[in-house]
From TrEMBL:
This is Fibrohexamerin. GO terms for cellular component: extracellular region. Keywords: Secreted, Signal, Silk protein. The keyword Nucleus does not apply. The keyword Secreted applies. InterPro entries: Fibroin_P25 (IPR009911). Its main location: secreted. It comes from Diatraea saccharalis. One of its GO terms (molecular function) is structural molecule activity. Residues 1-17 form the signal peptide. It comes from the Eukaryota.
Amino acid sequence: MISRAILFCLAVGVCAAGKAGIVRPCYFSDRKCIADNLRANSKCKPVIKGALPNKYTLQNVRFEAPFFNASFIDRTLTIRNHNKCKISEFFFNVPGDTAVLSVDCPYLDLESDRTLIQHTSKKEDSKYNYHIRGEYPLIRLTTNLKHADKLNLCSAFVFGDVTALPIFKVDPLDKPTKNFLSHDLTVLNVFERETFFYRAPYLMRKYINSYICNFGCN
Ligand SMILES: *[C@@H]1O[C@H](CO)[C@@H](O)[C@H](O)[C@H]1NC(C)=O
């Protein structure tokens, strides 16, 4: 049970009144309060970096797009503005024994040299290469941490909501890719949702572990 969270809430005295059993113990800007509440109910450590670079690069990040029968590998993925994310929701549902945490990431900017692997039944995969840079007006990450006395961000599902489509630019790296790439953007929203299904846990963990409380996973 999460009684420790409520005690904390009373002590701090900033609980927002809400529906029965819903307790908001912290202002969303109060990282220390959020960290203290998470710590009281989990094994996360207060050993945090307190910062993320404005821009950093990852190698070989793979994600899947089942609707498109495709896999993707971001061979070099540069992430900008991850440090601009902010906590946008944090509450405990006391009877439901669940904590809900949301993080809003404005202007998230992803740039990558990407390989698209197209799958077709009974055929060898086709591969295409392009450079892409996209800026997302707002990515909203939400996780439900169950059994709120032993919250574990490392094993929790994270929902990545692409609240608006990105502004992006694609440069095919060769002729076959140029011919292959679709100019039909009607299902771009499907692609972005599938993409962020894979990216959301990483983005959430890296942010929370760096700024709030360290659950010890990437
Ligand atoms: C994925 O493959 C299935 C089966 O071949 C096909 O019906 C479907 O149109 C493909 N999806 C896309 C987005 O091309």
